[in-house]
Amino acid sequence: MKLNTGVEHALNGNAILFVGSGFSKGATNRQNDDFLTGRDLKLLLQKKIGIVEEITLGLAADMFIKQN
Description:
Layout: H1 3-11, H2 38-49, H3 57-67
Helix pairs in contact: 2-3
């Protein structure tokens, strides 16, 4: 994806920002919950799409997007 396309998606509210490990350590979201680690996010996505076998975060994200 080109940078301009990524920025366009972000401005339209259709993007998720992933940053380096530790960037959000100690930060909370609007519901005052801690941000998920990459592994926890993957497990949450897997649960939502009904996948129990081990897959990557990227694949879990792609599958979640296709189902939703």
